Amino acid sequence: MMQPANQLLYLLYGKKPTYRYQAKFSILTALARHDKPSGLVIRLMTDDPQAFEGWPVDIIPLDAITLDKWAGSFGYAHRRKACAIALAVGWAERTVFIDCDTLFLAAPGRLFGKVGPGRYLVDAFEWHWKEAVTRPAYSQLAAALEASGQRPPDELKLYNSGLCGISKQDAPLIEEVIARIDQWSEHASRLHTVEQIALSFALRDKVVSEGRGIIRHYYAQKAFFHAMQEVFFARYGEDFSRNLVFLSQEVPRQRPCPSVLRRLRIKWRLKGVSPQLRPIGKKLMYGSFLPSSGYAQACREAWWDSARQDLLRAQGYDLSRGWPAQLPRAGKGSESQFESFIRRFPSQ
């Protein structure tokens, strides 16, 4: 296998079309932003290699036995990420692992410039340990660390590992991460970010940079980007071409919203709504007044479903009974679509 200076690494498994669209679209955005004449080395570990035939990626096929082994004795899915990096880190001087639900906003080369011996890259800093342990999901792990004398300092930084850059020289750090995951895997059913916490512990006192401004990791807004990617690949197909790279630039790089003027009108209409319901009303109205482009319209139900989930979390409100009395009706042309949308959901 060729050993380049830099490799962009993806891990994809599960064979779901949504996952495949994520990976392909992320690769398209990387190629669209690539600003050097030499090729960008992209490596994809996947259990669906046939789906990427003709794509400019080096494919490393994965079988079920390997994926099961990587999940460990507790079947922790996110352990696989650390195992993928551990396997690939020796294939290039610098490796940048990137989650599939990520878009490039700038040249990939800017990420590799942040990686080198003793210099690491992550997606983003999220919070300090002292903030994290106030969350119920952390209680069991925090108690176990306290009992074993491994409690970290309050100022330990916890990072999102949707992006992870490491040099070949620093490969032992990933083995340390895997060892910590195995030590803590019994807590993973309650705390799904064990892998990120293990990485954060390993990066304590290290030189760490973030990918902000270069990539957008849309993990919290997947429904919107999945809807747009489905429209894109339905329009143009999945076969790779340079034209597909060019066409990918027409897809919004952020969650579609109504125009500025419309947002001001929505804000005014919601002034009489209770503070608890106002953010929910905003989402309902945003879905009703999106721009007319196909990509934006594809996100209409994502806005509505986000509002519905907020209502259920807030007060157990069942949208199948109709629109909340305090909230305005949908905009002209969207009310019947909304009513059809909520009828698809049974009473909670």
Question: Could you please describe the fold and organization of this structure?
Answer:
InterPro entries: Nucleotide-diphossugar_trans. It is built from 15 helices and nine strands. The chain has two domains: 6-219, Spore Coat Polysaccharide Biosynthesis Protein SpsA, Chain A, CATH 3.90.550.10; 256-348, no CATH class. It is globular, with a radius of gyration of 22 Å. With 348 residues, the chain is an alpha/beta fold. The model has no long low-confidence stretch (mean pLDDT 91).
Secondary structure topology:
Layout: E1 6-12, H1 17-33, E2 42-46, E3 58-61, H2 64-71, H3 79-88, E4 94-98, E5 102-104, H4 109-112, E6 119-128, H5 129-132, H6 139-147, E7 157-167, H7 172-184, H8 194-202, E8 207-210, E9 215-217, H9 222-236, H10 242-247, H11 260-269, H12 278-288, H13 294-297, H14 300-315, H15 335-343
Parallel strand pairs: 1-2, 1-4, 2-3, 6-8
Antiparallel strand pairs: 4-7, 5-9, 6-7
Helix pairs in contact: 1-9, 3-7, 7-8, 12-14
